[in-house]
Design a protein that fits this description.
With about 280 residues, this protein is an alpha/beta fold. It has a single domain, classed as Rossmann fold. Helices cover about 35% and strands about 20% of the residues. The protein is built from ten helices and ten strands. Strands 1-2-3-6-7-8-9-10 form an eight-stranded mixed beta sheet, with helices on both faces. A hairpin with a 5-residue loop joins strand 9 and strand 10. It starts with 9 loop residues before the first helix and ends with a helix.
């Protein structure tokens, strides 16, 4: 797949599915790269727009994913889709927060802790959104992919829902992008770090909410993406702080004042395409 430049545009952040898919139908990307693009494509309005639904299905087909099924919980405004690989593996992709969607915003803001049946306490809004759609997805998987290896993924709010799905379903792999904190340390302990990859793009502000001081904890193994778009495993907290400081200064010079750009890097780094950018350049 071709290299992708860093995208500081408002369209990349607020209309993430506007850009055509990066999936070419040639060599298959690694599973985490596929999850990144599948998460970006989840913002296509497949639940209400036939053309966007066909666009999504066609893009997934280029990566060998078929038997697509979409899910929409009207009461919470929660969306997800499932697909199966040619080898029979299953993937569940949860959509993140859609800008201007009141139901998504209400979900995000309801941060009071509630008990999670599988252990610990979690964000009430995320738990309610997952409850509204999780049963239907689980039933589909049981019917169409019983016992299949399962990957769950998502970006932003979708990443939070995928994290809850991992705790509940014990999937083979969890891959999240720009994930907010979902629960406390007891909840995080229900997720095996070795099977859960948590990608954080440099200054992405969403990865730092809710604050640790409110009792929330990170879940999964950190995969930090530095200011140059390189995935860094095992990077220290000090190295991350220095990289972020350089990133903010560079952003002010290169992007902040350009027409159409997001004003600050903390938001621009949350754009799904900037996660895709880093993963398609990484080894599978």
């Amino acid at each position: 797949m071709p290299a992708i430049d860093y995208d500081a545009s408002r369209d990349a952040l607020y209309r993430p599915a506007l850009r055509p898919t990066v999936l070419s139908g040639g060599a298959s990307p690694g599973i985490d790269a596929l999850c990144a693009e599948a998460s970006r494509l989840s913002y296509l309005g497949f639940e209400s727009d036939a053309a966007q639904r066909r666009q999504l299905i066609d893009a997934l087909g280029r990566a060998g994913l078929g038997r697509w099924a979409g899910f929409h919980a009207r009461q919470t405004g929660t969306e997800a889709y499932c697909a199966l690989s040619e080898a029979g593996d299953a993937i569940v992709v949860f959509r993140g927060t859609v800008p201007g969607d009141i139901k998504d915003l209400a979900t995000d803001l309801n941060a009071r802790p509630v008990a999670w049946a599988d252990g610990g306490n979690v964000h009430a809004g995320f738990a309610g959104a997952f409850a509204s759609i999780g049963g239907e997805i689980a039933a589909w998987l049981e019917q169409h992919a019983p016992g299949a290896p399962l990957t769950v993924t998502g970006h932003s709010l979708g990443a939070a829902l995928a994290t809850l799905a991992m705790s509940r379903w014990r999937a083979r792999r969890l891959v999240t992008f720009g994930c907010p904190r979902v629960g406390d340390a007891a909840f995080a302990a229900t997720i095996a770090a070795a099977t859960a990859m948590r990608y954080v793009d440099c200054c992405d502000i969403v990865c730092n909410v809710p604050p640790l001081g409110l009792g929330y904890a990170d879940a999964g193994t950190l995969r930090y993406i530095d200011r140059n778009g390189m995935v860094r495993a095992g990077i220290s907290a000090g190295e991350i702080a220095a990289d972020r400081a350089h990133a903010r200064n560079e952003y002010l010079v290169k992007h902040a004042l350009r027409p159409g750009s997001v004003l600050v890097r903390e938001l621009a780094d949350h754009a799904p395409i900037n996660y895709v950018r880093a993963l398609i350049a990484a080894p599978p």
